[in-house]
Design a protein that fits this description.
Elements lengths: L7 H12 L3 H14 L4 E7 L5 E6 L6 H7 L25 H8 L1 E7 L6 E7 L2 E2 L3 E3 L4 E7 L6 H4 L5 H18 L4 E6 L2 E6 L6 H12 L1 H6 E8 L2 E8 L4 E2 L5 E5 L2 E3 L2 H10 L9 E2 L1 E6 L5 E2 L10 E2 L2 H18 L9 H7 L33 H8 L9 E3 L14 E6 L3 E6 L2 E6 H19 L4 E11 L2 H9 L1 H5 L4 E4 L4 E8 L7 H12 L8 H15 L10 H13 L13 E5 H7 L4
Parallel strand pairs: 1-8, 13-16
Antiparallel strand pairs: 1-2, 2-7, 3-4, 3-7, 4-5, 4-6, 8-9, 10-11, 11-16, 12-15, 13-14, 17-18, 19-20, 20-21, 21-22, 22-26, 23-25, 24-25
Helix pairs in contact: 1-4, 2-6, 9-10, 13-17, 13-18, 14-16, 16-17
Amino acid sequence: MPVRQLPEQVVNRIAAGEVVERPASVVKELVENAIDAGASRIDVFTDGGGRRRIGITDDGSGMSAKDLALAVERHATSKLDDEDLLQIRTLGFRGEALPSIGSVARLSITTRHAGEPHAWALNVEGGQKSEIMPAALAHGTRVEVNDLFYATPARLKFLKTDRTEAEAIREVVRRLAMARPDIAFTLAGEERAPVTWAAALPGAAGRLTRLGDILGAEFRSHAIEVHSERDGVVVAGYAAAPALTKANALGQYLFVNGRPVRDKLILGAVRAAYSDYLPRDRHPVLALFVTLDPREVDANVHPAKTEVRFRNAGLVRALIVHGLKEALAREGRRTAANSGSAAISSFRPAFTPRPGNWDWRSSPSFPSAPSFDGAAAPAFAERAQATFDVGAPTADVRFESEPVGDLVDRPLGAARTQIHETYIVSQTRDGLIIVDQHAAHERIVYERLKASLARNGVQRQILLIPEIVEMDEATVERLLARADELGSFGLAIESFGPGAVAVRETPSLLGKTNAGGLLRDLAEHMAEWDEALPLERRLMHVAATMACHGSVRAGRRLKPEEMNALLREMEETPNSGQCNHGRPTYVELKLADVEKLFGRR
């Protein structure tokens, strides 16, 4: 087949296939144009999930008649001052969006520049332009896209339901609204009630206001400010405390120079920063904004501009990890699920009388009628005393003496009792705290292991008689392959024939431990590793598993001085609000909340 030049219409439709994947792609391109035009308000309307109609109205600078005629031509743009493609300071710059949309839909543009006596309008249908005509518009630009993909019917078959396409549009507008809290957005359509996000004040407070409006009040109450900066790269934003998580990564919003992206490098850095705080099946909620010189990032890696490439990727990753870890450590107490609201909501009163129809004679304390079966009825005093007989305790509760000194003024209060040999109940000046003794001690041991490793290595204890652990050959090989990494934590192992491992040294910090259970747990974690996992992450997995085995177990009785010592260590330990598996170590109940349960407030 000979080589031939494709017609312009075909070229435009091929370009449209790269830029216009679905209605949400059209909304993204048009809203980005409005932002680049300096708009302070953008209104978005859709019908039929964007398939039948998309309308974008803004109060930006608008275009003159001459600019309008060029705007629908391929490779025409107002967003490049020169031919330097490395100095990209706008959201769009290739000049393909409008002609691509016009080649597959019915496009109508009405715009007015401040220097024009009136507005101008232009229509494009299936790539065919109309004449520019005078129109009525106060200011800014109004773009309407009708019958999307009518010129390429095959693309319609690949669109999803109207509701799904409308949700994709909503997500696009949400992300752009997060990036620009200084702009007011309105999103309306037959698929949803109108939603308006008012323009927020500049600065961190305004950003948090916009994020709270979009992500909800729960995110606002859990939000922790993140900020780190080095060599001209700034990472800022807000991250939710580990108490607020999701089952997937859809709650992570990332922006580079104001552009919403889904970058693997940034997502990986977020996972690394939260690795000490969350279980493996939970994901944090956050919005991070990376700002750097445009020359240091390539924003044209992907046609939809959702991926970027950094010149110094290591620096960006390090700043994200450092910023998140520093913020989570700074707000250590907030990072626990220590808000009593969730715990309070789980309580249910045993008996709730209805106002107006409660009879005191139906109370359980009301004495029953005397028996006439011939047996002697109990005396009145005996009957009254039986009313207060509550039976044997239903839990192993050991009450301690009154708090000594000023312990109740400490952040975690004074230990009062141990329940079910698992939970420590402590009293503070304005409430009470319930501590999971195993989870709390697990975090303490974990932080000690990390500190010891960073300082001078983990101290070891040599076993008088090596412990032999039998496992299948594949597991043994997996452990021996990581022997050096395990040795850095004081766990010395060597082969003991096929299907067995000899443990000769263990970390002294763990004391007496079950080497067999520890090695089996380590082997299970190692089965999920790959060579791409950084050594630091692998070492932290080892430390977390060792900490779990070296901690105070549930079911162990603790003396009052041991309970108070554990509380004091928690107060001195970073990130003690949750164990290294992401579970909360304590729950705090304010006295006011408890009083509400009993109707005292």
